[in-house]
C-alpha cells in the first residue's frame, strides 16, 4: 500500500548504496485457489528493499492466511514485551451476524478486500517497527519460496503454539482481583506496581469502550445501506406514479424518482467507504488492544516465573546451608544445582525486566500509532459524510428549477 | 480542499436563471473569503435565490422571507450584482441557492403552529396566500366530559366527551366573525351523514372513524387527543371544500348553539313500520296518497322502508350484469370512464408511494438514531481517554474524538428534524389516499343513481307490457271486461306516477354527473398544485438539511486533514 517512513533502521556497514535504507511491502491480488473444501485465498506479497539482508531489490512471493498466522505466532514468541500487530479474524462466523443471503454473497468480495487490506497493514506495521523489522522470521516470510514456507508452517504447529486454553488461564489470572483472596485460595502472584495496575485497568476498560463504538460504526454502515435501499424503492414507486399522472406533474415525479435512484447508488458507495475506512480501523483498534492484553499476559507469566524461581532459589539456599553445616556428600551436587538455579533465576529476572522495559516503550509507540490511525479514520469518516451530504444537497437543488418550470406550465 | 467543491460550482451554473447566464464566469475560491458566513461554499448571498423566496408552502409563516433572501431578490433583477468587493464586479460565484436557512425558518414557523388547536392558518388545502378575501378557519379544542342525563337508565349515567369548536370567518353566510359551540362525536357523524345525502356526487371528505375498539383499549387521554386532532383535520377539510363550506349543514354545525338541529336518521325499526304503509306509494302510486314523494326517489334505497325498492334495484343490477339485453341506459360518458380508470390507477400508485415513503422516513430516522448512538459512544470514549491520559498523544486523540462525537450528535439531531419535516410533506400522499375514498363514494353515488333510473325504466316497460296484455285480453270480450278495465286504469295511474319518478331520477342522475365532472376538475387542479408544493417542500427540505450536515462534517474534515495521506 503506502510506504511507511523509516526510523531506526540500523544502517548496515556493508550497505553499498548512498540511498537511505527502505523496506516496502504490499499485499495484493487476492486469488482463489483450489476447489471445494480445500479452497483458500492466496495473496501476492511484494517486497521492495535495498537492505542487504534481503535478496535483490524486489521479490514477489505467494502467501496464504495461515502463513501470516505463522509469522505472527513466531514474533509473539520471540519478541515478548512488544505489541505484535494484530491479524484480521480467521473466519466470518461471529463477526457479522444477521446478514441476509444477498449480503453474505456481497460480504465475500467485501470480506476478501477487507482482509487483504488488513493483512497489508499488518505486514507494513511489522516492517516499520524498529525491532520487528529485523526479525529472521520476517525475512523468511517475505522471501522464502512456497515449499520452504509450507514446511516451516507445518513444523511449527504444536511446538510453539500456545493452546488457547493456556492463554485464557493467563487472562483469568491477570483479571482476578479480590475474589481469590476472599475465597481463601492461593493469591496469584502479581506485581505491586500502581502505575502498571492503572495501565492494566485502562487497557481493559478501553477495549469495552472501543467495542461499543465499533458496534455502532458497523450499524451505521448498515443504516446507510438501508437508506439507500429505501430511496431506491421510493424512487421506483414515484416514477410509476409519474407515469400514471402524465404531463408536467408526471415529469416532475419522474425526475424526483430518477434523483432518488441516483442518490441510492451514492449511499451504497458511501456505506462501502464507511466500512473500509472507518469501521475497519475501529475494529483494528480493538484487535490491537487484544494484542496488548496478550503482552500483559506474557508479562504476568514472566513475572510469575521470576517469582517462582526466586522462591525456589531461597529454599535451595536454606537447604544448601543446612547441607554445608552437616558437611554432607550431597553438598557438591547441591552447590551445582544451586548455581544452575541462580543462573535460571537471573535469566528469568532479565527476561521479565526486558518485557517491562519494552512495554513502556511500546506503550508510547502504541498511543502515537493509534492517534494517527484513529485520526485518519475520523478524517475519512468526516470526508465521506461531507461528500455524501453535498451530493444529496446538489441533487435535490438541481431538481428545483425543473420543478419550477414544470409547475408554471 | 476537496475536488467536488469545484464540481459543485460547475454543476450549479447549469441551473442558473437566464438573467445570470450572460455574465457568468466561474471564479476560483478567492471570492468566498468575501462572504462573511461559514467557511463552507454554500452561501445564502447567492443571486440565484429567487426560487427560494417564491416557493409557496402550506405554511404562511414561511412567506416572511428572511432578510438575506429579499436582499438577493433585489439583486437578481440586476444581472451584475453589487458585491461589496471591488474585484468582483463582473465575476461572481454562482452559488447554488442555500436552503439551509429557509428550511430552519420554516421549522421554527411550524413549531409555533404545533400548539394544541390554536392555529390561525386557513386550513386551505391549496397554496393560495392568506390575503384572499374569504376565509373559514376552524379549531377543535378543550375536550370535556359531560353527562348524558336524558338517556341515563343506570345511575351514574352515560358520559361522553364534548369538544369546543371555534370558528373564525368572514363569510357572509355566518352570523358573526368568531364563535364557538360544543359538539360531541355523534354530532359529527350526523353532520357527515347529512352531507352525504345532500351532496351526492361531490367528493366529500371522509369523517374520522368511530374507533369503537380503540376507545376501549387506549388510554382515555391519548384517545381523546387523537380524536380531537382527527376532528380538526376533518372540519378543516370540509371548510376547504368550495361547495361544502357554504352548506347549511356545516353552518348549523358550526354556529348553532345547543342541540344540533340536523335531523338524525330514524332508526331502522320505525322505518320498517313506515315501509309497510309506504311501500305501495313508493313505486305503485296507489290511490292512497297519490304521487310519489319525490325526495324519496332521489335518495338511494336504504334498508327498512325501501325494502321493496332495494329488491327491485337488486334485480335490475343482476339483470344488468347477467341479463342478455343491455340495460336501457348505460354509463356512456367515455371521458368519465377513462378518468375513473385513471383514478383507480392513481390510487394504486399513490398507495405504493405512500408505503415507500413510510419506509424512507423510517430509514432516515434509523440512520439518525445510530449516528446519535455512535456520537454518544465517542463522547464516553473521549471522557475516558481524557481522564486516563498519561501521554500527550492520548489527549490529542481525545480532542479529535470530541469533535467527531459533537459532529455525530449534531448530525443525529439534524436527521431527527429532517424526518419530522419529511413526514409533514409526504403526509400529502396519505391525505390523497383518504381523498380517494371520497371520490369512490361520489362515483358510487353516481352508479346508484343510474341504477335507480334503470330500475324505473324497467318498471315502466313491464307496466306497459302488462297494460298491453290486459288491453288485448279485454278487447276480446264483447262489451268490455269491467274488472280488467279497472285494472288497466289503475296501472295507467301507476305509470304516470312512475314516469314522474323516472323524470325525477333522471334529473338527479344528471345532477350527480355534473357534480362528478366539476369535482374531477377541481381535484385535478388541486392535486396538481398540492403535489407540486409537496415535491418542492420535500426537495427544499432535503437539500437544506443536507447542506447543514455537509457544513458540520466539512469542519471536522478540515480539523483532521493533518492525518490525511498525500493524494487522498
UniProtKB/TrEMBL annotation, chain A:
<feature type="compositionally biased region" description="Low complexity">
    <location>
        <begin position="10"/>
        <end position="21"/>
    </location>
</feature>
<dbReference type="InterPro" id="IPR036871">
    <property type="entry name" value="PX_dom_sf"/>
</dbReference>
<feature type="region of interest" description="Disordered">
    <location>
        <begin position="1"/>
        <end position="24"/>
    </location>
</feature>
<dbReference type="InterPro" id="IPR015404">
    <property type="entry name" value="Vps5_C"/>
</dbReference>
<dbReference type="Pfam" id="PF09325">
    <property type="entry name" value="Vps5"/>
</dbReference>
<dbReference type="InterPro" id="IPR027267">
    <property type="entry name" value="AH/BAR_dom_sf"/>
</dbReference>
<protein>
    <recommendedName>
        <fullName>PX domain-containing protein</fullName>
    </recommendedName>
</protein>
<dbReference type="GO" id="GO:0035091">
    <property type="term" value="F:phosphatidylinositol binding"/>
</dbReference>
<feature type="domain" description="PX">
    <location>
        <begin position="21"/>
        <end position="149"/>
    </location>
</feature>
<dbReference type="GO" id="GO:0005768">
    <property type="term" value="C:endosome"/>
</dbReference>
<dbReference type="InterPro" id="IPR001683">
    <property type="entry name" value="PX_dom"/>
</dbReference>
<dbReference type="Pfam" id="PF00787">
    <property type="entry name" value="PX"/>
</dbReference>
<dbReference type="GO" id="GO:0016020">
    <property type="term" value="C:membrane"/>
</dbReference>
From TrEMBL, chain B:
<dbReference type="Pfam" id="PF00787">
    <property type="entry name" value="PX"/>
</dbReference>
<keyword id="KW-0472">Membrane</keyword>
<dbReference type="Pfam" id="PF09325">
    <property type="entry name" value="Vps5"/>
</dbReference>
<keyword id="KW-0333">Golgi apparatus</keyword>
<keyword id="KW-0175">Coiled coil</keyword>
<keyword id="KW-0597">Phosphoprotein</keyword>
<dbReference type="GO" id="GO:0030904">
    <property type="term" value="C:retromer complex"/>
</dbReference>
<dbReference type="GO" id="GO:0051604">
    <property type="term" value="P:protein maturation"/>
</dbReference>
<dbReference type="GO" id="GO:0032585">
    <property type="term" value="C:multivesicular body membrane"/>
</dbReference>
<dbReference type="InterPro" id="IPR044279">
    <property type="entry name" value="SNX2A/B"/>
</dbReference>
<feature type="coiled-coil region">
    <location>
        <begin position="453"/>
        <end position="529"/>
    </location>
</feature>
<comment type="similarity">
    <text>Belongs to the sorting nexin family.</text>
</comment>
<dbReference type="InterPro" id="IPR036871">
    <property type="entry name" value="PX_dom_sf"/>
</dbReference>
<dbReference type="InterPro" id="IPR015404">
    <property type="entry name" value="Vps5_C"/>
</dbReference>
<keyword id="KW-0963">Cytoplasm</keyword>
<dbReference type="InterPro" id="IPR027267">
    <property type="entry name" value="AH/BAR_dom_sf"/>
</dbReference>
<dbReference type="GO" id="GO:0015031">
    <property type="term" value="P:protein transport"/>
</dbReference>
<feature type="domain" description="PX">
    <location>
        <begin position="141"/>
        <end position="261"/>
    </location>
</feature>
<feature type="coiled-coil region">
    <location>
        <begin position="329"/>
        <end position="363"/>
    </location>
</feature>
<dbReference type="GO" id="GO:0005829">
    <property type="term" value="C:cytosol"/>
</dbReference>
<feature type="compositionally biased region" description="Low complexity">
    <location>
        <begin position="119"/>
        <end position="131"/>
    </location>
</feature>
<dbReference type="GO" id="GO:0035091">
    <property type="term" value="F:phosphatidylinositol binding"/>
</dbReference>
Amino acid at each position: 500500500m503506502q510506504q511507511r517512513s523509516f526510523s531506526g533502521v540500523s544502517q548496515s556497514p556493508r550497505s553499498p548504496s548512498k540511498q537511505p535504507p527502505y523496506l516496502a511491502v504490499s499485499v495484493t491480488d487476492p486469488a482463489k485457489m483450489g476447489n471445494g473444501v480445500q479452497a483458500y485465498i492466496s495473496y501476492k506479497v511484494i517486497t521492495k528493499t535495498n537492505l542487504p539482508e534481503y535478496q535483490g531489490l524486489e521479490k514477489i512471493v505467494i502467501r496464504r492466511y495461515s502463513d501470516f498466522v505463522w509469522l505472527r505466532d513466531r514474533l509473539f514468541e520471540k519478541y515478548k514485551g512488544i505489541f505484535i500487530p494484530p491479524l484480521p479474524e480467521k473466519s466470518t462466523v461471529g463477526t457479522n451476524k444477521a446478514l441476509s443471503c444477498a449480503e453474505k454473497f456481497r460480504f465475500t468480495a467485501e470480506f476478501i478486500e477487507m482482509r487483504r487490506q488488513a493483512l497489508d497493514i499488518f505486514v507494513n506495521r511489522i516492517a516499520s517497527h524498529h525491532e520487528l523489522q529485523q526479525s529472521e522470521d520476517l525475512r523468511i516470510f517475505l522471501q522464502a519460496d512456497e515449499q520452504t514456507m509450507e514446511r516451516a508452517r507445518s513444523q511449527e504447529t504444536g511446538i510453539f503454539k500456545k493452546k488457547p486454553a493456556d492463554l485464557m488461564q493467563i487472562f483469568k489470572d491477570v483479571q482476578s482481583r479480590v475474589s481469590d483472596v476472599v475465597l481463601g485460595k492461593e493469591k496469584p502472584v502479581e506485581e505491586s506496581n500502581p502505575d502498571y495496575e492503572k495501565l492494566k485497568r485502562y487497557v481493559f476498560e478501553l477495549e469495552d469502550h472501543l467495542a461499543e463504538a465499533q458496534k455502532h460504526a458497523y450499524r451505521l454502515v448498515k443504516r446507510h445501506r438501508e437508506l439507500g435501499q429505501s430511496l431506491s424503492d421510493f424512487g421506483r414507486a414515484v416514477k410509476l406514479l409519474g407515469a400514471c399522472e402524465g404531463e408536467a406533474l408526471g415529469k416532475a415525479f419522474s425526475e424526483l424518482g430518477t434523483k432518488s435512484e441516483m442518490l441510492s447508488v451514492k449511499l451504497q458507495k458511501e456505506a462501502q467507504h464507511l466500512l473500509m475506512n472507518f469501521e475497519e480501523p475501529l475494529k483494528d483498534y480493538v484487535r490491537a488492544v487484544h494484542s496488548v492484553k496478550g503482552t500483559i499476559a506474557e508479562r504476568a507469566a514472566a513475572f510469575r516465573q521470576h517469582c517462582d524461581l526466586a522462591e525456589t532459589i531461597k529454599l535451595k539456599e536454606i537447604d544448601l546451608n543446612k547441607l554445608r553445616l552437616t558437611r554432607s556428600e550431597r553438598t557438591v551436587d547441591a552447590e551445582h544445582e544451586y548455581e544452575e538455579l541462580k543462573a535460571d533465576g537471573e535469566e528469568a529476572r532479565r527476561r521479565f525486566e526486558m518485557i517491562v522495559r519494552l512495554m513502556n516503550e511500546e506503550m508510547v509507540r502504541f498511543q502515537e500509532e493509534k492517534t494517527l490511525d484513529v485520526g485518519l479514520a475520523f478524517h475519512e469518516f468526516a470526508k465521506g459524510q461531507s461528500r455524501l451530504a453535498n451530493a444529496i444537497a446538489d441533487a435535490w437543488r438541481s431538481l428545483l428549477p425543473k420543478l419550477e418550470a414544470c409547475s408554471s406550465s | 480542499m476537496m475536488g467536488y467543491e469545484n464540481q459543485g460550482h460547475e454543476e450549479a451554473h447549469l441551473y442558473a436563471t437566464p438573467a445570470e447566464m450572460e455574465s457568468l464566469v466561474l471564479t476560483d475560491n478567492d471570492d468566498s473569503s468575501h462572504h462573511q458566513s461559514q467557511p463552507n461554499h454554500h452561501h445564502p448571498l447567492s443571486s440565484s435565490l429567487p426560487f427560494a423566496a417564491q416557493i409557496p408552502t402550506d405554511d404562511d409563516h414561511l412567506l416572511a422571507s428572511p432578510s438575506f433572501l429579499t436582499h438577493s431578490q433585489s439583486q437578481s433583477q440586476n444581472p451584475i450584482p453589487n458585491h461589496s468587493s471591488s474585484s468582483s464586479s463582473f465575476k461572481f460565484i454562482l452559488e447554488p441557492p442555500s436552503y439551509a436557512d429557509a428550511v430552519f425558518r420554516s421549522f421554527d414557523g411550524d413549531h409555533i403552529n404545533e400548539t394544541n388547536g390554536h392555529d390561525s392558518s386557513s386550513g386551505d388545502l391549496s397554496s393560495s396566500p392568506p390575503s384572499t378575501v374569504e376565509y373559514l378557519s376552524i379549531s377543535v379544542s378543550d375536550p370535556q366530559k359531560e353527562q348524558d342525563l336524558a338517556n341515563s337508565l343506570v345511575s351514574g349515567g352515560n358520559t361522553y366527551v364534548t369538544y369546543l369548536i371555534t370558528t373564525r370567518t368572514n363569510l357572509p353566510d355566518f352570523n358573526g366573525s368568531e364563535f364557538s359551540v360544543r359538539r360531541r362525536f355523534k354530532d359529527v357523524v350526523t353532520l357527515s351523514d347529512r352531507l352525504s345525502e345532500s351532496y351526492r356526487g361531490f367528493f366529500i371528505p371522509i369523517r374520522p372513524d368511530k374507533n369503537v375498539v380503540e376507545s376501549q383499549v387506549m388510554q382515555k387521554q391519548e384517545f381523546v387527543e387523537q380524536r380531537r386532532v382527527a376532528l380538526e383535520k376533518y372540519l378543516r377539510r370540509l371548510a376547504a371544500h368550495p361547495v361544502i363550506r357554504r352548506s347549511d349543514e356545516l353552518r348549523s354545525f358550526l354556529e348553532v348553539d345547543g342541540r344540533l338541529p340536523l335531523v338524525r336518521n330514524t332508526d331502522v325499526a320505525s322505518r320498517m313500520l313506515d315501509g309497510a304503509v309506504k311501500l305501495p306509494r313508493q313505486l305503485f302510486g296507489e290511490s292512497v296518497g297519490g304521487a310519489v314523494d319525490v325526495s324519496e326517489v332521489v335518495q338511494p334505497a336504504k334498508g327498512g322502508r325501501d325494502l321493496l325498492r332495494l329488491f327491485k334495484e337488486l334485480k335490475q343490477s343482476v339483470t344488468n350484469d347477467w341479463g342478455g339485453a343491455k340495460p336501457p341506459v348505460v354509463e356512456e360518458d367515455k371521458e368519465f370512464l377513462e378518468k375513473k380508470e385513471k383514478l383507480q390507477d392513481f390510487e394504486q400508485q399513490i398507495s405504493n408511494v405512500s408505503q415507500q415513503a413510510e419506509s424512507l422516513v423510517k430509514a432516515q430516522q434509523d440512520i439518525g438514531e445510530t449516528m446519535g448512538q455512535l456520537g454518544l459512544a465517542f463522547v464516553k470514549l473521549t471522557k475516558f481517554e481524557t481522564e486516563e491520559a498519561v501521554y500527550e498523544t492520548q489527549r490529542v486523540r481525545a480532542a479529535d474524538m470530541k469533535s467527531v462525537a459533537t459532529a455525530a450528535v449534531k448530525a443525529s439531531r439534524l436527521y431527527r428534524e429532517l424526518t419530522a419535516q419529511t413526514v409533514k410533506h409526504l403526509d400529502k400522499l396519505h391525505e390523497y389516499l383518504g381523498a380517494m375514498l371520497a371520490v369512490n363514494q361520489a362515483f358510487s353515488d353516481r352508479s346508484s343513481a343510474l341504477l335507480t333510473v334503470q330500475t324505473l325504466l324497467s318498471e315502466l316497460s313491464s307496466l306497459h307490457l302488462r297494460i298491453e296484455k290486459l288491453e288485448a285480453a279485454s278487447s276480446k270480450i264483447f262489451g268490455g271486461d269491467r274488472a280488467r278495465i279497472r285494472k288497466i286504469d289503475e296501472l295507467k295511474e301507476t305509470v304516470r306516477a312512475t314516469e314522474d319518478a323516472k323524470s325525477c331520477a333522471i334529473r338527479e342522475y344528471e345532477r350527480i354527473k355534473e357534480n362528478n365532472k366539476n369535482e374531477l376538475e377541481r381535484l385535478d387542479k388541486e392535486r396538481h398544485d398540492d403535489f407540486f408544493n409537496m415535491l418542492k417542500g420535500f426537495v427544499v427540505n432535503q437539500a437544506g438539511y443536507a447542506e447543514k450536515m455537509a457544513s458540520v462534517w466539512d469542519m471536522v474534515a478540515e480539523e483532521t486533514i493533518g492525518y490525511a495521506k498525500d493524494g487522498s
